[in-house]
Amino acid sequence: MSKSERRLRTALLGSVRCYPEEKAQIQASAKAAGISTGEFLRRSALGRRIVAKGDTKQMNEILKLGGLQKHLYTEMQKLGMMTPELSKQFADTLASLQKTLMKFRADSLNNTED
């Protein structure tokens, strides 16, 4: 980005009055999303997507757990250690992980795309 392009982003909006509770809530939401308060307000006002960083980290952990579950399942099958009871437990665990992941994705669809 050239110096003149950066300069264009320095236009200031007037002060926004709000209650102290609202200010605290906005600041907490911005912090949870891992962005500045100004960036949070810009995205909110323009209808852009705001995804909390914690959500993406949690989603990645859920995906990793699902991959590890599948790996354990196939390894146990190769070794002949898989029983119908264990197979059902693996299936139930994977189904729970999928439901949790879908909740994250459904929540993120409530925001509009950039």
What does this structure look like?
The structure is a single chain. The protein is an all-alpha fold and 114 residues long. The protein has 2 domains: 18-50; 51-114. Helix content is 71%, strand content 0%. The chain contains 5 helices and no strands. It has helices at 3-8, 20-33, 37-45, 53-78, 84-109. Helix 4 packs antiparallel against helix 5 (84-109). The two termini are 19 Å apart. This is Ribbon-helix-helix CopG family protein.
Q: Notable features of this structure?
A:
114 residues, mainly alpha, 2 domains, 5 helices, elongated, disordered C terminus
Short characterization:
With 114 residues, the chain is mainly α.
Mean pLDDT score: 83
Biggest β-sheet: count, sense, barrel? none
- What count of domains describes the coordinates? 2
Morphology: elongated
Helix/strand structural class:
mainly alpha
What proportion of the residues form beta strands (DSSP E)? under 5%
- Share of helical residues: over 70%
Number of helices: 5
Identify low-pLDDT runs. 109-114
Distance between the termini: 19 Å
- The counted number of beta strands is 0
Along the chain, the helix and strand elements come as: HHHHH
Rounded to the nearest angstrom, the radius of gyration is 22 Å
Assembly type:
single chain
